[in-house]
Structures are given as C-alpha cells and as structure tokens.
C-alpha cells in the first residue's frame, strides 16, 4: 500500500508510476462472489446493482483528508495520480482503466476522514460485458490471471443490538424540538439521524452483508468503501460520457407486507402534502446545484413511488447534459449535502443538525461511490448503511435518518427510522 502526499505537501521529484492494465473478462459469476476472504474490511470494495458494477480488493494507493477542503483535496490528488499513471485499457468503457472508490464524511468537522482507495484488483461488468483491471506501483507489467470465485463468507454469530449515541427516546425528543424550530421559521426542513450498535461474537465479514443486501434490495447500489457497508437507494449523481443523472428520494412510508394495503399506502404517499413538500425541497436543491454544470435539464413535474422491500419512497430522476469538464466527484461535492440528507435552507439546517443530533454521523449520509481517470463515475448517498469498527471488527454502527418538516410526528419518525434500519439489521442475521 502507498499513500501519496496531499495537495500542498512536499512532493518528490519523481513519484511512483501507477501501472494499470484492463482486459476483457469472460465471467458469469456474481461480482460479489469474487471478493476474497482474509482481507481487512477496508480493502474490500463494492459498487454493485442488479449484478453489474464494480468490485475491488487490495490497496495500491489510498488518500485521506478532513475539513472543508476534503473534496477539493481528493480531486487534486486523483488528478495527480492520473498524471502518473501508465494505462493499457483493452475495454475502454466508463469504469475501466484507473479507478478509485471513495467515501466522504457528512460534516466538515467530523472526526472521520474522507477516503479514496485505489484497489490492486477490480472486476467489473456493464451491459453484460466483463473486465479485469490490475493496478500496481511495480513498473513491470505483470501477467494477468483470471480471478477465482472466493469461498462463501461465514454469517455473523450471536449478534446483539444496543442503543448508540442517540436512543429512540432521544431521537423523538430531537424531532419534537426540530418541529418547534420549523414552526418558529428557523428552517423549512431538517434531516435528523440516529444510530444503533450491533456486536457479534466474532469479526463480521462484510462480504456476508454485501451478498445479503444484494439479494434482498436489487433496486439499490450495494457499496463497501473503507469499512462503510450498505445498500443505498439514492444516486447522488452519475456522470457517464457527458450525461448527468441524479435520483432524488424524499418522503417515505413503511410497507406492511400486504400487497393491497401497500398499494393503498403508495397512493396516499403520492398525495401526502407533507411528503410532497419534503420531496420538492430535495429536488429543488439538486436541480439548483447541478444547473451551473449542465444544460437541457429534465426535472419531472411529479415524483414516482419507488418500492423497496421495507419502505416506499417518493422518487424523482433528474437528467441533464454536461457543459463543462466537472468530474463526477466535483458534481457530488456541489450537491452535498442535498436537502434529502441535510434540509432547507441547507446551511441553517446543517447547523441545526449539529445542535440537535448529538452524534458524529461519520461517513453516513455522505457521498460514496467510484470515479475513473476521465471523471466518469457514480456517487450515491451512504444511506441504509453501517460503519465497521476499525478497532473491533466484531462491531458495526448502523445509521438511519428522516426528513423533519412542519407536519412531522416524533413517534412516527422513530417508526420510520426503525424501518430504515431493517436492511442492515436483516443483513446481520444468519438465517
């Protein structure tokens, strides 16, 4: 593993050359099946949806940064890596060649660092076409060997759950206070989160969590970056050869498991003035942030209802054409935090989160995803997720949050947060 200096730090006259090789790969096994056993969680990487995407392992290069400039410093570091890379790419599609995976803390004052990881091996698949990429600091281009399917992961054992920094009662109190502040005109919307700590009797294998999430939540992007594992339904931004897309989720209702009742609930969600108001704030914040970088933006007039196994969301897909060379990470930085995870007005809502939430979100609700050397990539919002404890791999902290507006009821928001914890709670189950 090697870490290059951060921008502004002294740099050796001749930094390491990054040697990258991508070749086609004929493989039909699930991408997640290639992730090997025996590696630490921070060296297992994933961005997979419906069987396609990227998985990576190992660590050729890493980068960390904190504070207000974490996005700009990461972008500058990545450009420098690109300048030092020697790439032979026989596939030439977004996601081939030099690629990094990244995860960023929600708040600039978080104790957590932003992370970029360049794995030593990547297996990708898009539109049925597979590829294998190796990345090395060794100037000698090594012979590529097709990866093998790894052994099945062991399930977590004896998992026990305990309140984290924010108990359900604490959360209800924070929601009630937020509703007061909204009524006083301080903000229109604020997103508040809570945490739940799970502890097993042995180290938790993130590969188990990833496979369970992929099997049960096919409409989500199943991710793993530097020990942050989850399945997000919300695509913050994707840049793909000039096309920019973003999926906005805001407004949620819990499913009952009864199809007829759930259809009625979906209809009520689509008519709910409280949820439609919350959704409108989120869509407007995304469209306004993307506007300087885009043309021909398409923002649907009304949301659709996205059905997930545990909840239903109001959703809107925004699409536009890029008019500059802003990378996917630059676009993600311009969007973060959106109203969907921060609130409206954003700056005041984020201040209120710091005042009322009483915990460090870490990288929960921050951008998570990948980017290639051309700036193409995809970044989701790290929702429905958990952070494995680097000091105790048998422990993981789960997070969930809800958008609070004038009509919010504290007990209902606690119930909604419980529903949003279900994917990760179920992923930890051994049955």
Automatic annotation (TrEMBL):
Transmembrane segments: none annotated. SUPFAM superfamilies: ADC synthase (SSF56322). Keywords: Isomerase. It comes from the Bacteria. InterPro entries: ADC_synthase, Chorismate_C, IsoChor_synthase. It holds the Pfam family Chorismate_bind. Its EC number is 5.4.4.2. Belongs to the isochorismate synthase family. This is isochorismate synthase. The lineage of its organism: Bacteria, Bacillati, Actinomycetota, Actinomycetes, Micrococcales.
């Amino acid at each position: 593993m090697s870490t290059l200096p951060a921008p502004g730090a002294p740099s050796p006259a001749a930094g390491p050359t990054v040697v990258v090789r991508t070749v086609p790969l004929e493989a039909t096994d699930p991408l997640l099946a290639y992730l090997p056993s025996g590696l630490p969680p921070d060296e297992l990487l994933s961005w997979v949806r419906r069987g396609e995407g990227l998985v990576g392992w190992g660590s050729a290069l890493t980068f960390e940064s904190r504070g207000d400039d974490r996005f700009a410093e990461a972008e500058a570091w990545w450009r420098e890596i690109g300048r030092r890379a020697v790439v032979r790419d026989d596939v030439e599609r977004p996601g081939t060649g030099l690629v990094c995976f990244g995860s960023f803390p929600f708040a600039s004052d978080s104790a957590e660092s932003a992370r970029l990881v360049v794995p030593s091996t990547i297996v990708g698949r898009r539109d049925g076409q597979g590829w294998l990429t190796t990345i090395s600091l060794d100037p000698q281009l090594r012979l590529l060997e097709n990866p093998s399917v790894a052994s099945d992961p062991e399930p977590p054992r004896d998992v026990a759950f305990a309140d984290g920094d924010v108990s359900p009662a604490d959360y209800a109190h924070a929601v009630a206070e937020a509703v007061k502040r909204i009524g006083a005109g301080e903000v229109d919307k604020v997103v508040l989160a809570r945490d739940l700590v799970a502890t097993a009797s042995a180290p938790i294998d993130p590969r188990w969590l990833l496979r369970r999430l992929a099997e049960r939540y096919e409409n989500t992007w199943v991710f793993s970056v530097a020990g942050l594992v989850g399945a997000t339904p919300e695509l913050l931004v994707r840049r793909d050869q000039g096309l920019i897309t973003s999926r906005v989720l805001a407004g949620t209702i819990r499913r009952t498991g009864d199809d007829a009742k759930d259809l009625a609930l979906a209809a009520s969600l689509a008519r709910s003035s409280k949820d439609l108001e919350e959704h409108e704030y989120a869509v407007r914040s995304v469209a306004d942030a993307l506007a300087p970088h885009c043309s021909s933006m398409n923002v649907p007039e009304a949301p659709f209802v996205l059905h997930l196994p545990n909840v239903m969301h109001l959703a809107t897909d925004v699409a536009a054409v890029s008019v500059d060379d802003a990378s996917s990470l630059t676009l993600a930085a311009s969007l973060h935090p959106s109203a969907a995870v921060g609130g409206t007005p954003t700056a005041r809502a984020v201040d209120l989160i710091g005042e009322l939430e009483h915990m460090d979100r870490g990288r929960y609700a921050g951008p998570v995803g990948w980017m290639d050397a051309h700036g193409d990539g995809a970044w989701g919002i790290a929702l429905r997720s958990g952070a494995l404890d680097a000091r105790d791999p048998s422990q993981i902290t789960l997070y969930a949050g809800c958008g609070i507006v004038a009509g919010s009821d504290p007990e209902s928001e606690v119930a909604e947060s419980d529903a949003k914890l279900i994917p990760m709670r179920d992923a930890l189950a051994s049955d």
